Task: structure prediction
Amino acid sequence: MKKTLLIAISLFTVFSIQLSAQEITGKIGKEDLINIRSTFDNSPTNIALLNAITHNDIKKLAESRKNDGVINHYFSNRVKVSGITNQKSSGRCWLYTGLNTIRPLVQEKYNLSNFEFSQTYNFFWDQFEKANLFLEIARATANKPLSDREVEWLFKNPIGDGGQWTTFADNIMKYGVVPAEAMPDTYQSEKTSMMSRLLRRKLREDGLKMRELANSRMSEEAKHNAKIEMLSEIYRILVLCLGEPPLEFSWQVKDKEGKISESVVYTPKQFYDELIGIDLQEYVMFMNDPAKDYNRLYEIQYDRNLVEGSNWKYINLPNEQIKEFAKQSIIGNEAMYFSCDVGKQLNVVSGILDIDNYNYNDLIGVDFGMDKKQRIETFESGSTHGMALVGVNILPDGSIDKWLLENSWGADKGHKGYLTMTDRWFDEYMFRVIIHKKYISKDILNILKQKPILLPPWDPMFSPEM
Result:
């Protein structure tokens, strides 16, 4: 009976697909091809374009000459920062960005010319906690079939090295921080692809086991012990790839005048509390997503790295309001977590982000005309990279023409490791900025009291920064 039912379901599925295929019309006929071919004439201009484009980099050919030297890297207001970090071949930009926003506080407090936190330390705990969250969600959704969209999304995305502000804040507040020398980078932390592949493979296997456990008659204690065994294997993989996180460490520094401090022993939490001591929950995430209603609070399902952590919540606002709060933060000498679609119109050599850097319309002779809302809805644009927003150029009339970003691609990328973003580019490709509450007006803070609109993790706008 069971086998017959499965065959019937399979036949129904195939038949449904066939019916759907029959409903799709509009095949290309011979006359259509003749008409289409006739639209491309062998004019000298088209032949020159054909020769150029088939033998050269399209982006280089589309680079706009009129932008050369027009935009400089001078700013009226800039957060006091120094030293450029490098995430190498990893998706840890969100972690670099978060740590880079609090790094200036340490440099100023101890009069240091340079300082860097260990990204590897917090990355270790991010991966470990994400593994635990995946296993718990696998157990919580065990009553749903593997074909369910939520379960399918879960097993497609069991773990990754990307993230955003909420994952950063929860990680830091639970595990603290350590200086770079206490847990330096490894080959695997700088090139995370193989480690991530192995973690995904093991977690998918364990996820299936968690589904079986959830539906078994085992005691809760036995189920918990089984999960701990799974996490012990994840811990082993992480230790072998990243090293074991220190429980405590000694720290000693030399300041700008050459004075050497006493060596002090800290735990990671003590180190954060003494050097930074900021409640990261006091920051607010803003989004500019014209595909959704403004002045509303939104929450992304499952978008966190701790079981007990917070889902990603944000206020959706027009750009002009976000810019005003961001400007005040820079004037107050506080860097901000910033994320955007960095690959769009980026000239990585000059370090300029501007909407006129590349003109594909005129080169190809085809109009690429979607606005920001349409690009989001069709997955053409979304947040891909996080950086620290550290500067703004305010003109005499009070208007803004550009912003400064501290990147994590090394000092040889962009303008000495920084990117200059025009205000027009901000409008088109900025998506998220995290700003302390003290720079935000009361009417906007009141939006945090709203019941958030819950969005699924596969929403077009939401993928972790890499």
Q: What stands out?
A: DSSP finds 17 helices and 14 strands in the chain. Residues 77-455 form a domain with the Cathepsin B; Chain A fold (CATH 3.90.70.10). The first strand starts at residue 77 and ends at 78. Residues 1-17 have pLDDT under 50 and may be disordered.
